[in-house]
Every structure is written in C-alpha cells, then in structure tokens.
Write a structure and sequence with these properties.
Layout: H1 9-19, H2 37-47, E1 54-57, H3 63-70, E2 77-81, H4 84-93, E3 100-104, H5 107-114, E4 118-124, H6 133-142, E5 144-155, H7 179-187, E6 191-205, H8 208-217, H9 220-231, H10 235-242, E7 249-262
Parallel strand pairs: 1-2, 1-4, 2-3, 4-5
Antiparallel strand pairs: 5-7, 6-7
Helix pairs in contact: 5-6
This protein binds S-adenosylmethionine.
Length: 266
C-alpha cells in the first residue's frame, strides 16, 4: 500500500527549479476552468485559529500564502520548498511580509534540523511529486504539534488517464492514488483521517498546442516521456493521437483533498 514512486529527489528539485520561471503564468493557455485550489483554502480557513502557525510544504512560488493573505489571514506562515527557483520566487513575493518566512529545504530534512512544531501543515499539489511518500508523511507528522492538522490536495487516478491509464499506485509515473489509498497512507503513518474529498476538475484549452504547453509547464510531459522510456508504455503515443485533431481539448480528472489529524502515541 505504501509503494514508493520511482522519482528521484534531484529530478524533482531540478524540474521545479526550471519550471519556476513560468510557474505563475502557466494558466495563460487555459480557456476555461482551473484547479480546485479553493478546496484546500476553504478547509484551511475552517481549521486555522488566529494564533496557529502554518507550515506550507512545497510552497512553490507561494500560492497558498498568497491566497490566504488575500482572505485577510494574518497568521505566521513558514514556506519551504526543495527547488531553489521556486524559493527565490516566493521570497520575492513575500519580502515585505513580516509574518512570512521562506526557506529552501526538503520537509524530511527541515523537521530534523529545525525541530520546530506547527499547528497546521499544508501541501498544495505536492504529494504526487515527492520522492518517498511514506517518509514525507512521517516527516509531516513529526513537524506537527499534538493534535495538529495536515491539509493536502493532490491528484486522483483519473488525472491524465486520457494519456496514461491508472493500474496501480506502485510506481505510477504520475504519483496518482485513489482517495482511499491516499487516506490509508496517512492513517498508516499515525494520522486520524478526518475528511477526504474528491473534486472533479475540467481545464479547457483552445487547441492542442495550448494543452501541450500547459502539460509541459506543470512537468507532466517530462514524467510521461521518462515513463515511456523506462517501461515501454506508449504514453507519448496516446498523447500524440489525442492532440492530433484541431479544436478545444480538456484536461479532466479528480483532485483529492485530505484533512488528517496527528494522533498521539505512534
Ligand atoms: C506542483 S508544485 C506545487 C507548488 C505550489 N504548492 C503550488 O500549488 O503552486 C510541487 C512543489 O513541491 C516541491 N517539493 C517536492 N517534494 C518536496 C519535499 N520533499 N520537500 C519540499 N518541497 C518539495 C517541489 O519542488 C515543487 O515546487
């Protein structure tokens, strides 16, 4: 159940540092629709007390903190990311915010060196990218205070199923899992899973070029290409036939959002 992905930490860091230059513009190709980031924000708003400290893991260029500040959340927010490019974009964004701190670190190292505990940890679109899910979730647990919460939004099996059908979460090239499997990953690491929500999403593009450019900007193309060469799966063929015709194309699937509380005695 807790099978590990075949992602390597250095690849993840390198990919996201490279993507960071265009990360905040990646939606410019979208005709209609977008992620369901609001689900994570809604849940965070319902959990955060005014004095709670928040650690946003895999912060990218600081989207979660930006959305919270836009909703007048004044809590202390610490953001960490393993990709230097993302960290410098987040630092630029929050240079005038005395309640925000940004560090270049992997969660697994950060909780060991910092020894700081948070009331809440968030992770927006991070879990399906991490090199070792089990150790990532255990690290999140040790970075939380007793009864603290982790809120995470990630992808379900239907994400990119048009190009790569989902068979099993073990070594899935896109890090996908069903909502029950995500929940089990938290439960088996000492969390009480309070809420799991599946949300349908549809992101529509004017044509194949925009679709492909968007996939490239979120790192999916490089994962699909690598998958094909490693296992002989023809993901790129499926993608090619999908983008063969003119006209609008949609990326559809489910996002999974999990709210999990740290249980004592594990
Ligand atoms: C898809 S991006 C999401 C960025 C941001 N949360 C957003 O939604 O815009 C995933 C991020 O997680 C980071 N990441 C992956 N594994 C990590 C780890 N173990 N510790 C810290 N950051 C990690 C990557 O570097 C990348 O910036």
């Amino acid at each position: 159940m807790d099978g590990e992905y075949s992602f390597h930490q250095e690849d993840v860091d390198r990919t996201f540092s490279k993507l960071s230059a265009h990360w905040s513009h990646k939606s410019s190709r979208v005709q209609k629709g977008g992620g369901v980031r609001n689900r994570l924000i809604q849940l965070l708003l319902s959990i955060l007390n005014t004095s709670d400290s928040l650690l946003d893991v895999g912060c990218g260029d600081g989207k979660v903190a930006t959305l919270l500040r836009q909703r007048s959340v004044k809590n202390e927010i610490t953001m960490i990311d393993g990709a230097e490019g993302m960290v410098s974009a987040a630092r630029d964004r929050f240079s005038n915010d005395p309640q925000a701190e940004v560090a270049c670190a992997h969660l697994e190292d950060y909780v060991v060196t910092e020894k700081r505990k948070f009331e809440v940890i968030s992770a927006l679109q991070v879990l399906h990218h991490v090199a070792n899910l089990r150790s990532f979730i255990e690290s999140a647990r040790s970075g939380l205070k007793e009864n603290g919460y982790m809120v995470a939004l990630t992808v379900g099996p239907s994400f990119h199923a048009e190009a790569i059908p989902f068979h099993t979460p073990v070594n899935d090239p896109l890090g996908r899992r069903s909502s029950l499997e995500w929940a089990e990953s938290f439960r088996s690491a000492g969390f009480f899973v309070e809420t799991v929500i599946d949300d349908y999403f549809c992101i529509q593009f004017p044509g194949p070029e925009d679709y492909l450019e968007y996939l490239r900007s979120i790192g999916s193309i490089s994962k699909m290409t690598r998958y094909r060469s490693e296992s002989g799966c023809a993901a790129t063929h499926a993608l090619a036939s999908l983008t063969d015709s003119d006209g609008p194309l949609a990326l559809t699937g489910h996002h999974v959002t999990i709210v999990a509380q740290k249980m004592g005695g594990h």
